[in-house]
Design a protein that fits this description.
The protein is of the alpha+beta class. It contains 15 helices and 13 strands. β6 and β7 form a beta hairpin. α4 packs antiparallel against α5, α12 packs antiparallel against α15 and α14 packs antiparallel against α15.
């Protein structure tokens, strides 16, 4: 038994380790603390995105402010922030309170007011005012807030609502036109709103479905008539007659569309601004309208839900600062799906060859080093490669071989969702290869040897034993690839993503999946709204909401993949090798 004297005499390196640090508890707590800090940072960023995005759709009260210079303006209180002592107001003097005394540093603040009526005075849409410069503030209950297709929102007191009569013979829109003034204007707009929406649906059907289909068919016939291999004799006469009938249908549809637009333009809401100016809002350009200062809790919830639904199901407007982002959602999901279909077979086959079939040596090691280095190449380099190889070379070759009659207008020789998906497949290929190799390496050697001993071939062993056992690792690589592809922007800017593309790559017209079409992407939408928008303040909430939706989409895709991976892992663990 070792005595205390012998312990003191023993070399330090041979003494038994004891104490808090030697037990490893300190390392455990440091690791736990670092993990907790990372989680707090992630939750903090997510909370910031949620707070900045979801609150934007909640309707706020609209006030009538009277400023110190006598100016009156309608607007919402958008933000408040303190002002330093001695700061100057808009007129160049120091800020003061309502009594005219200099404001102290503790009480001085300025208020950002969100106005409207951009077509009357664009400088009053978002502006800062020292709180002391606001001499009066009221909340008129009769004030109407109108969200428009163009020029943003409009605030004002109702002056009149003018409407036109329907077609001869009465019907749903029948009757004579007229004018409702004062408070009756809001009630009349509510009464006419069902008819307005019906007319707008007819306009949309004519524009997108009827006229669009006629135009596409007419272009196809004209292209066939103008091609080098154009038919002659009776076939050409039949095509010419078909083109003539299509032109007649096109003219009739255009005439009907003009009539519907005339009826919509004949109805308008007249609003009065505090400055005395009047704004005429065409009924056909109204998205929604309400009296914000009269809304109860249920009314606010209805407006909030309507705005949220428009955001996820509508198309963008006003330079992407208003409206919805359905094309961006659809484009992101479809692009990730196409990328996954392209990268998984390539990555799995490459990893299988490197791990199971290739003779291990210097060459294979060099390939592995190259794959690992490829993962560190900047994404913009992949974008340039995709532009040069996929778009110009492959797409140009397809155009010359199959769409020569459409040249010089490119079909596949320009950016499209197919080329973006293939570019991102190359970008994420190293991730899938590395993850698949790790999954293959984790399969016990005894499983392979047992399968071969029972008479299975190398391919049967790989297909029925190794791949199912390695599937959780493969799905790990797919999850990482999907998460990275969903957030990439730089390669997409060169290979197919655009600011606005209301025509989705998937439609009801043959061939249904249009891989040559350009598309919208959530990541590119965030970049465009955040850095290219002419109205920074109006774009800020849309950036938050689009970011929240992108994060939610990535989480949803990952959760689905992880659920599949968990089921496969449980199945593998329950099997016997």
């Amino acid at each position: 038994m070792t005595t205390d004297v012998e312990m003191e005499a023993a070399p330090r390196a041979t003494r038994p380790r004891s104490g808090y640090w030697a037990s490893g508890d300190a390392g455990i707590w440091l690791t736990a603390g670092a993990t907790a800090l990372c989680l707090l940072l992630i939750l903090g960023v997510f909370a910031l995105i949620v707070a900045g995005g979801l609150g934007f759709f909640w309707p706020r009260a609209v006030h009538e402010f009277t400023l110190a210079d006598g100016t009156r303006v309608h607007g919402q209180i958008w933000e408040r922030e303190p002002m330093p002592a001695g700061s100057h107001g808009p007129g160049g003097g120091t800020t003061s309170d309502a009594a005219g005394k200099p404001a102290t540093a503790g009480r001085a603040e300025r208020i950002e007011i969100k106005g409207a009526n951009r077509d009357v005075d664009a400088s009053r849409e978002y502006f800062w005012v020292p709180a002391a410069e606001i001499t009066a503030r009221t909340t008129p209950r009769e004030l109407i807030q109108v969200e428009r297709l163009e020029y943003g929102e409009a605030y004002g007191m109702p002056v009149a609502y003018r409407w036109a009569g329907g077609e001869a013979g009465g019907g749903a829109g029948g009757g004579a036109g007229g004018e409702a003034t004062g408070g009756a204007a809001f009630a009349k707009l509510n009464e006419r709103w069902g008819e307005i929406e019906r007319l707008r649906r007819q306009v949309s059907r004519l524009e997108r479905k009827v006229i669009g289909e006629i135009n596409r068919e007419l272009e196809s016939v004209r292209a066939e008539l103008g091609s080098a291999a154009a038919p002659v004799g009776p076939k050409r006469d039949a095509l010419s007659e078909r083109a003539r009938r299509l032109e007649q249908r096109y003219a009739a549809a255009e005439e009907e569309l003009t009539a519907l637009r005339t009826r919509l333009d004949a109805e308008s809401l007249i609003l009065a601004t505090p400055s005395g100016a009047e704004i005429s809002v065409p009924a056909g350009g109204i998205v929604r309208f309400f009296r914000p200062n009269e809304l109860d809790l249920w009314g606010k919830v209805r407006v909030y839900a309507d705005r949220m639904w428009e955001f996820v199901s509508g198309t963008p407007r006003e330079a992407n600062t208003q409206g919805g982002i359905l094309p961006a959602i659809f484009g992101t999901v479809l692009m990730v799906f196409l990328m996954t279909l392209a990268v998984v077979p390539l990555g799995v086959i490459a990893a299988l060859y490197l791990r199971e079939y290739a003779r291990q040596g210097t060459m294979v090691q060099a390939v592995r080093i190259a794959v690992n280095n490829l993962a560190g190449v900047p994404s913009i380099v992949f974008g340039i490669f995709g532009l040069g190889f996929f778009v110009y070379f492959v797409g140009g070759s397809i155009d010359r071989a199959f769409f020569a009659d459409r040249l010089p207008t490119p079909t596949y020789g320009t950016g499209g969702i197919l080329w973006s998906a293939l570019t991102l497949a190359l970008l994420t290929l190293p991730v899938v290869i590395v993850a698949t190799e790790e999954g293959l390496a984790a399969v016990p050697r005894a499983a392979r040897e047992g399968s071969l001993a029972l008479g299975a071939t190398k391919w049967e062993t790989t297909w029925r034993v190794v791949l199912p056992a390695a599937s959780p690792g493969i799905l790990t690589g797919v999850i990482l690839a999907m998460a990275r592809a969903a957030g990439e922007v730089a390669p997409l800017m060169l290979t197919g993503a655009v600011k606005i593309a209301n025509d989705l790559p998937l439609s009801g017209e043959f061939p249904f999946l249009h891989l040559e079409r350009k598309f919208m992407h959530l990541g590119f939408h965030i970049y465009d709204v955040g850095f290219q928008s002419p109205n920074v303040e109006a774009a800020k909430p849309m950036v938050y909401m689009t970011t929240l939706l992108l994060v939610t989409l990535v989480i949803a895709l990952n959760l689905v993949a992880m659920a599949i991976r968990s089921r496969l892992r449980a199945r593998v663990q329950s099997s016997h090798f």
